[in-house]
Structure formats: structure tokens, C-alpha cells
Write a structure and sequence with these properties.
With about 475 residues, the protein is an alpha+beta fold. The chain is about 45% helix and about 25% strand. α8 runs antiparallel to α9 and α12 runs antiparallel to α14. The longest helix has about 50 residues. The chain is elongated and about 140 Å long.
Length: about 475
């Protein structure tokens, strides 16, 4: 028992409970039992009962360890715990043993004192922890820490859930690149190295890879951790799954780009209608007026020949405009499996004489991607335009060599067409390259409609076309389907 009756009375008056262990017996004070709302006959004053029925599960393991350290090795302890009352609510206590008390109030027996925690700080901390966990789950935000001294990484439960790893998974610092998409390995390395070496915090969007190889977008925020000597000893931060929002943003941007491209095509269409057609009709009107004014039959017959030339030009312009309109209407056609090799053979057969006459060499490698789901007429048109352009604008001092290949890049099919032709001055003409009726060489048969049509066909099916070129060396067109 406690040293003397005075201390016992003080404890009882202060409503301080205690648990005394002596001679293999376990005694719980009446103050301790009644503070929980129980009668002595309603509970068993044993450790097993306490661990299984009363103490909160989150405090159980630590209390058990502390308890046995006290009993077996006389190691005192202090611990905040939650104990279940009779009404099933939890009440917070501070457990203290001899040397953790301000004064020594018991003999050689082992006693654990239970003080009701009337300072709500710890309960607030638990509330904060609860709200943190709730907030983390609702916002898909997990915390992490990289310890440079221990050379270890630490993830919380939410980070493991986001990354689809089991709860007992230990993150790897050495192979941390496996958590990021390949195209973002350098970004991750740059951010961490800069933070570790200079203390620069980071806040970025990065593509990550889960344990199940699922790619997703995350917001990664990190800042350095310093010791007392102001040396950087780690990096602490959070990951937030923003995949849904990021994909919406990317889709919105893509939609915006498509609308901008469509507006540009509409502007071009309106320009051709208003300018080219007006030019043809004005010339036709002028010729008709001259015919009416002339009296000589010979002169009238000569002008009638001009009408034929104007009508042919007018018909060509209308055909071009019809091609543009057709692109938009054909996008609703059903796509089928289209073979790159078979489509190319159709194209090469149709221009066989041009290839032979120009002594053009065609180098093909469709081994990585042999076919895709596409509109056959579009694929044929795209290949025809790019191959004939490469022949048409070949370098005057060498035979044309055209290389075609397919491959996968960022999970998308790529068709690459490279030639060794004249090349294009991208600084001067890059922005006008795909414009209608824009030409950049002095070939007599250059019309400036092929690349405009090609770009329209590719973009109408949500693809993109890119170009790299150097004057005198050649051009590479890269189509991303």
C-alpha cells in the first residue's frame, strides 16, 4: 500500500486511482474503479481484463510493454492512455509510476497511478490526428519522409494506399525512381537533389507509378528538414492524388486546342471562300463584260478561251474546299484495323512511276507497331502526301531516301517519316507550314494544300503532327495517333 494513510487520504480525496502490484496480487483502488463508472464486482482486476476490455486498442501494445518493464525490471514509465468507461465512452488518463511522480509516495511495491487528464491538449492532439486522417483520406493526401542520416524512407498509411502497396511495405530509397513514370525520372531527381543540396522546397505535378503499375498524376510537395546545426538531414512532404483533376485539365486543354485548330481551319476556309472564289468570279465577270463590249468575233473567241482557264481554276478551288469539308464529315465513319505495310504498298503502287523516275529509295520498319484502328482512306491520304512531298522537294544534288517507321512513345503509336530533301527553314516558315496554299519552295507544281489536308485529317481524329527540319539536310514528320 502507499506509505501512510495521509497519502492514501490525499489520493482518495483527489480522486486519483492507482493499481498496486505486490506479492503476485493486483489491487485496483476504489477511486480508479468508480471513476470509470463500475462497481468492484463488475470487473476483474487483472491485466488480461484490462488489456482486452478497458484500454483503447491504440494504447494497448505500449502499455503492455511498459507494464512488464515495470514488473520485471523496475523501469518506471509515464503514458497517456484512453480507458473505456461503463457507458462505452473513453476517458483519458495519465499513467505515472514512482520516479515519474514529483514525490515518492509508496514503498517497494509497484504502483501505477492514474490521473484524469483534465488538460485537453492531448485530446486536441488526438482530435487533430483524427481530422488529419479524415482530411488525408478525403483529399487523397499522404505524408512521407526521407531520412538522410538513416538512409531510409517513411510513408504513412495514406501514401501506401495511394501507391497501392500493403501496409507493411517499406519504401525503398535506393530504388525510389520506380515510384515515378519514366518520363518524369529526371524531374523527380532534379527536385530532390536541389532540395537536399540547397534547401529549395518544391511543389510540382508529377506522374507516378503504383505497385500495380497504374500511372497517375500526383502533386508532390516537399521541404528540407534541418538539425540544430542547420544541416539538411532529410526531406519531409506530402503526395496528393490529383489524377482525376489533372486529366480533366489536360482534356480541357486538348479540347481547347482542338477548338482553336478548328477555328483556324474555319478562318482559312472563310479566307479561301472570300478571297479565292471572289478572285475567280471577279475575273469571270470581267471577261464576260469584255466579251459584251467587244465587237470583233476573233477577240471574243480569244476571251472565251480565258473563261475555260478560269472555270478550271474555280473547279480546282471548289474541289479543295470540298476535301476540307469531307474530312469533318468522315470522322464519324467506323474505324477499322489498318495495316501500315498494306496501306503503304497501295500508296507506292499508285506512284510507282514517280518513284522510279526520281530514283527514290524507300526504307520501311513497321515491326514495332504493324497496325492501328483508323479510317483507311485517311491513312492512305496521310502516307501519300508525306511520301510525295518528300519526292517533290528532294535535294537537287542527291537521290531521295525516305524512311518510315512506327513505334510506341508515352503509350501512344507514332508514325515517323524522314527524308533527306531540301529541308524547311523552320524559323521563317514553321508557323505557316500547315497553312492552306502556303508553299516554301519554288517548285512549279507546288500547291500548298497537301500538308493542310494531312494536318486536318490527323487532328480530326484527335491526333497530332510535329515536324523537325533543317535546310539542306532534310525533314522529319512525326505523327502521334
Amino acid at each position: 500500500m502507499v506509505k501512510n494513510e495521509l497519502f492514501k487520504n490525499v489520493i482518495d480525496n483527489l480522486d486519483i486511482g492507482y493499481w498496486e502490484l505486490k506479492n503476485n496480487t493486483s489491487y485496483w483502488s476504489s477511486a480508479f474503479i468508480t471513476s470509470l463508472g463500475y462497481k468492484p464486482s463488475e470487473i476483474a482486476t487483472k491485466l488480461d481484463y484490462f488489456l482486452e476490455q478497458l484500454i483503447h486498442k491504440n494504447d494497448k501494445a505500449l502499455f503492455r510493454d511498459n507494464f512488464f518493464s515495470l514488473v520485471e525490471n523496475n523501469i518506471d514509465f509515464k503514458q497517456n492512455i484512453l480507458i473505456k468507461k461503463k457507458n462505452n465512452e473513453f476517458k483519458e488518463y495519465i499513467c505515472k509510476t514512482n520516479f515519474t511522480l514529483p514525490i515518492n509516495i509508496h514503498d517497494n511495491s509497484k504502483v501505477i497511478f492514474f490521473f484524469e487528464n483534465k488538460i485537453k491538449t492531448s485530446s486536441k492532439v488526438k482530435d487533430y490526428n483524427f481530422y488529419y486522417r479524415e482530411s488525408a483520406e478525403m483529399t487523397s493526401t499522404g505524408s512521407w519522409y526521407v531520412d538522410f542520416l538513416e538512409q531510409k524512407s517513411y510513408w504513412d498509411k495514406e501514401t501506401r494506399r495511394i501507391m497501392e502497396y500493403p501496409e507493411d511495405y517499406i519504401p525503398s530509397l535506393k530504388y525510389s525512381s520506380q515510384y515515378y513514370a519514366e518520363e518524369h525520372h529526371q524531374l523527380a531527381a532534379d527536385l530532390f537533389f536541389k532540395c537536399a543540396m540547397t534547401g529549395a522546397p518544391f511543389n510540382t505535378e508529377i506522374k507516378m507509378v503504383t505497385a500495380n503499375k497504374r500511372l497517375f498524376w500526383a502533386r508532390a510537395i516537399g521541404k528540407p528538414v534541418y538539425n540544430n546545426e542547420q544541416d539538411i538531414i532529410g526531406i519531409r512532404g506530402v503526395f496528393q492524388d490529383i489524377d482525376e483533376e489533372k486529366l480533366k485539365t489536360l482534356n480541357l486543354q486538348k479540347t481547347s486546342d482542338i477548338i482553336a485548330s478548328q477555328n483556324s481551319r474555319l478562318f482559312n476556309f472563310a479566307h479561301i471562300v472570300s478571297h479565292n472564289l471572289r478572285s475567280h468570279t471577279s475575273n469571270l465577270s470581267l471577261i464576260v463584260q469584255l466579251i459584251e463590249d467587244l465587237k470583233s468575233v476573233e477577240e471574243k473567241l480569244e476571251l472565251i478561251g480565258s473563261i475555260k482557264d478560269i472555270s478550271e481554276s474555280l473547279n480546282t478551288t471548289i474541289e479543295h474546299l470540298n476535301d476540307i469539308v469531307t474530312i469533318q464529315t468522315k470522322t464519324n465513319q467506323n474505324k477499322t484495323i489498318v495495316s501500315f505495310e498494306n496501306t503503304l504498298q497501295i500508296v507506292l503502287k499508285s506512284i510507282k512511276h514517280i518513284i522510279m523516275k526520281s530514283n527514290t529509295k524507300i526504307d520501311v520498319n513497321f515491326s514495332e507497331v504493324q497496325s492501328i484502328k483508323y479510317i483507311p482512306a485517311y491513312m492512305e491520304s496521310i502516307l501519300l502526301n508525306l511520301v510525295t512531298n518528300a519526292i517533290k522537294y528532294k535535294h537537287k544534288n542527291r537521290d531521295a531516301i525516305i524512311k518510315l517507321k512506327t513505334y510506341i512513345e508515352n503509350n501512344k503509336t507514332i508514325l515517323e517519316v524522314t527524308d533527306n530533301g531540301q529541308g524547311i527553314d523552320m524559323d521563317r516558315f514553321g508557323k505557316k507550314l500547315f497553312g492552306m496554299y502556303n508553299t516554301f519552295h519554288y517548285n512549279e507544281d507546288a500547291v500548298g494544300i497537301g500538308l493542310f489536308i494531312t494536318k486536318n485529317q490527323i487532328e480530326s481524329l484527335n491526333g497530332e503532327i510535329f515536324v523537325e527540319s533543317e535546310v539542306g539536310k532534310g525533314t522529319t514528320f512525326k505523327i502521334q495517333f
